[in-house]
Amino acid sequence: MKVLACYSIKGGVGKTASAVNLAYWAAKSGYRTLLLDLDSQGASSFYFRVKSPVKKNWGKRLLKAYGEVLKQVKESDYKNLDVVPAHLSFRNFDILLDEIGKRKNRLSQALKGLKKEYDLIILDCPPTISRLAENIFNASDIVLVPVIPTTLSERTFEQLLKFFKQQDYSRKKLLPFFTMADGRKQLHRETATAMRKRYKYFLKHAIPYSTDVEKMGKYRAPIDIFARGRLANKSYFALWKEIESKLEG
Ligand SMILES: Nc1ncnc2c1ncn2[C@@H]1O[C@H](COP(=O)(O)OP(=O)(O)OP(=O)(O)O)[C@@H](O)[C@H]1O
Ligand SMILES: [Mg+2]
């Protein structure tokens, strides 16, 4: 079982869009896939049409009790693809993590109960660099980082690199890729070229800026369902193939 986090310190960069489309392609490629929606906003749960559990304090139980995650698994409309929906209590993850002993491996412990059932766990993460983020870094084999090719995004990526270095996380876990890339904008072109030069490990495939990604909210489905032949769909598929080769490698 491999764990792939869609993560960024920055909000609104395409973490959820990526988690949803990549989970879809992974499942379609035969991986028994679970998307765990860690963001209390519940956006990926919404896209996959799954409802949040009604249980109180579910966030605490998820982190505390081994095997709890499995109890909240919901089937999606797609073969091989299940979802653990977000819950409002997830907004308190950091407080909960403090309460239950400041450990950095709570999430990885919670995911251990899924080993037999799934080949791939995809985490849709909230934008944070808190205690939850440290749990995410510990639990993940790959931390996939969407980067919009702009100055501010470059800065937050550098902050993440610095944090990884300070905290002694392996830089090799980080897989950045460009998203919302707009080839008509000079700034995007220049920033992408400069960053690719500096960080050779950026993924080759990028996701273009596209209204088809925005339409996921209207159709509540991965792009392949409603815009099969379009560039955004092909780009997510190509990105998935590149990530798959890293997962297997
Ligand atoms: N490639 C893209 N082209 C155009 N719009 C996009 C693209 N990717 C994402 N968006 C849009 O940008 C907004 C933010 O995307 P998304 O929710 O995936 O980001 P996020 O990083 O998960 O945000 P948050 O930090 O709030 O969880 C959404 O409205 C989404 O439809
Ligand atoms: Mg999101």
From TrEMBL:
This is Chromosome partitioning protein. It comes from Malonomonas rubra DSM 5091. Gene3D superfamilies: P-loop containing nucleotide triphosphate hydrolases (3.40.50.300). Residues 1-168 form the AAA domain. SUPFAM superfamilies: P-loop containing nucleoside triphosphate hydrolases.
